[in-house]
Design goal:
Helix content: 25-40%
Low-confidence stretches: none
Oligomer: single chain
Number of helices: 3
Number of strands: 3
CATH class: Alpha Beta
Radius of gyration: 19 Å
Amino acid sequence: MGKQKRERTLADSEAKAVCRMLRVSPQKLNLVAASIRGKKVGAALADLTFSRKRISGDVKKTLMSAIANAENNHDLDVDNLVVAEAFVGKALVMKRFQPRARGRVGRIQKPFSNLTIVVREVEETA
């Protein structure tokens, strides 16, 4: 008997990688994700390699995972891949408290984010 096989949510020419619980605010992560959106994979990797943002290393790791998924699981050509989507979601927020003057308390929020990268194979135009 067993479970029914779940239909694939992506097209046949797409592959996806998800990185969860990144220790950075979604707003900061979205700045890096926006810098690679719509670019060819080689250019996006080069941008992330030389980016000065701390989180760009984790974004690069996720992009490389999406490329590996496309190559190994879906038999797509790496040279024709484009970053179709790179979107950021909110994860949990750790709340910490810092003592302040006159017996008050300062609330510190430490947000986490989720990152999803979808790469798509495009046909080369001659």
